[in-house]
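Students often ask what a 'structure token' actually looks like in practice. Rather than answer in the abstract, let us consider Sporulation initiation inhibitor protein Soj, a protein of 462 residues. Its sequence is given first.
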Amino acid sequence: MAKDSTSLPPYFNIDPDAALAELDLPTDTGGFAEIAEACTRGRADLASRGMDEEGRKSLRLFSTWEITRYLIPVAQAHFRRVLKQNPDLPQGQSETEGGAKWFTLDEVLRLRAFFGAQGSKAKNYLPYRPAGQPAKLVAVANFKGGVGKTSTAAHLAMSAALDGYKVLVVDLDSQGSMTSIFGGRVEDEWHTAFPLLARHYGEYLRIENQRRLDRGDAPQPLDEALSAAMDMTARDVIQSTHWPNIDLIGAQLNLYWAEFQIPVWRMQARGWKLWDALTDRLEADGVLDDYDLVFIDTPPALGYLTINGLAAADILLVPMGASFLEFDSTGRFFDMLHSTFASIEDGENIAARALGRPEMGFEWDAVRTVITRYDGAQQGELSALMQAYLGKTLSPHRQDFTALIGQAGEQVNGIYEADYRDFNRETYARGRETFDATYAAFKRLLLGVWRRGELDAQQAAE
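Now compare that with the structural description of the same chain:
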């Protein structure tokens, strides 16, 4: 039967007594704790899916088909022949007699290294990283929520790991979503980036106290928290993940305390360069020598943690949706970036000029915006307009929204953690195409930055 087109919309004729009957009791402050507890139980239930017997996330296996299609560019027949000729190499495991072979990512990395050393020199078995070039830090940021910031950072980290790079992920968002994706366990703020920032301030304070003593002034005491931080290094807060070549500095709610503590430190020591804290500590502790890429997930706000992440970055990626409001919000975000960093530069350079010292300035190797959750049928015209205004700043690749994204999200997994056997194989192949293309666009940026640095170094040496 056809629906009556003259029927009233559902917000007419609501009975107040019926509405009252559906209403629960008023919520007091304690009610927030009950809701939070319910969310904690639900989160634990969701996060437990895909965990091993010890309660930790485990990474799935990779089939011969998947390895030869996505990870090591060889024909399946040649791949099998190489394994047969080299019994010392990982041989994989079969779930059934004579069935397909499946390999751990650790085994895939070993196989890639073998092909890189013994295989055709015309193929790029190993990822490009010029000798002598430093690890690159990549911040993913936008102060508008829901634009795919964390998922973009996570999938790029996973893509790079599958490509053979060694990756560190730094979660600066106290919501800890990135930490959950990688199965991190963070008890309190002392297992986050907080002690690195605290130690950076503490070391500055020690230098200042020596200057005070030299002048005959009383030193500022280091409180218990700062004293504890002085004994910690970045390696104390780095944890391994279920990905063999991805490590994590995690986050949890107490990390937000840094947003209150940092301005207090800054007021006590105006000369402390708070924006250098994260970079200086990672460099001083030798952490950057252990990785090719560091992905920094920032909070959806331009606070002190975000400033640290952005100041540390060599490459800045800004995800956004193809909508007027998100385009407008992203423009305001860049305006705030300009105001914030220009203000820091102005303040520092006034003193530098007065003392005859070189002036400082922030610089990023590359800045790109990326359209996420793209629907070409409805957003093509608007995205083209955005491209016209932003030019090269907007990546020409649009990250489509696919059914694979939704299903992986329900399982608290990244796209590359999804087993293609849960889908039709071709459905899986189509679903991951948009993320492979996103990584390809990023990798072109990364390789261009590394190559520029390599050529600059060669020119300087001549």
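One point worth highlighting: The radius of gyration is 26 Å. Ask yourself how you might have guessed this from the sequence alone, and why that guess would often be unreliable.
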